[in-house]
Write a structure and sequence with these properties.
The protein has a domain at 9-17 and 68-213: Nitrile Hydratase, Chain A (Alpha-Beta Complex), CATH 3.90.330.10. It has 11 helices and 6 strands. It has helices spanning 35-49, 55-67, 70-82, 84-92, 94-100, 134-137, 142-145, 147-155, 157-163, 200-204, 209-213; strands at 2-6, 9-14, 110-115, 120-125, 173-178, 183-188. A hairpin with a 2-residue loop joins β1 (2-6) and β2 (9-14). The chain is globular and about 55 Å long.
Length: 222
């Protein structure tokens, strides 16, 4: 872990000493396939040709990933807010906790859950491309893949959060976690006040995608 000491606090950038085994994403409009897209097509064709996977199996996996949405992650957060035993497992072994509630992430990269507390606020980024917990949150937003977010979240996380409407007090540490092809993160936000006695479904309804990235906080309707 590389720690950046800022004038009024400590903002940690968690690299995990992993290299991304794919090329950095370039921000561009849709156009001719890039080298990464060409490589993906070649590998996919080779896997089919060698009988490792069928076209139907690949299509099914893509459909499964496309069917995932932030609502799935929100249900996990709501369960953690209401079940201390589940929360403990989620923080210790996210994959096992997900299996416990019927969510199988299969051969997807490992997941790690990081908890927001009164002393720490976590935010997720992928500095080199767009590694993202798709199996829980679905397709990443365009801004998550943008060069501006990927670079500025590392150098000025508090400033970026302010632009998202989140002002983190100076006495609260900001930890930036860099997702990789091997490890994805999801933020467990703090349960807001005024939600005592709420059902899991009602709690899940206030957990947005951005809350689980760390660029928003759950809001209780007035």
């Amino acid at each position: 872990m590389t720690t950046h000491d800022h004038e009024h606090g400590h903002d940690d950038h968690d690299h995990h000493d992993h290299d991304h085994p794919h090329a950095p994403r370039k921000d561009h409009d849709a156009g001719p396939a890039g080298a990464y897209e060409v490589l993906e097509e070649a590998v996919r064709s080779l896997l089919i040709e060698k009988g490792v996977l069928t076209a139907q199996e690949i299509a099914a996996s893509v459909d499964l990933m496309d069917s995932r949405s932030p609502a799935l992650g929100a249900k996990v957060v709501a369960r953690a807010w209401t079940d201390p035993v589940f929360k403990k497992l989620l923080l210790k072994d996210t994959r096992a906790a997900l299996m416990q509630v019927g969510i199988d992430i299969g051969a997807a990269p490992e997941f790690s859950t990081v908890e927001n507390t009164a002393d720490v606020h976590n935010v997720i980024v992928c500095t080199l491309c767009s590694c993202y917990p798709k199996m829980l949150l679905g397709i990443p937003p365009a801004w998550y893949k943008s060069l501006a977010y990927r670079s500025r979240t590392i150098t000025d996380p508090r400033g970026v959060l302010v632009e998202f409407g989140v002002t983190v007090p100076r006495d609260v540490e900001v930890r930036v976690h860099d997702s990789t092809a091997d490890l994805r993160y999801i933020v467990l936000p703090m349960r807001p006040k005024g939600t005592r006695g709420w059902s899991e479904d009602r709690l899940a309804a206030i957990v947005t995608r951005d809350c689980m990235i760390g660029t928003a906080l759950p809001q209780v309707p007035a």
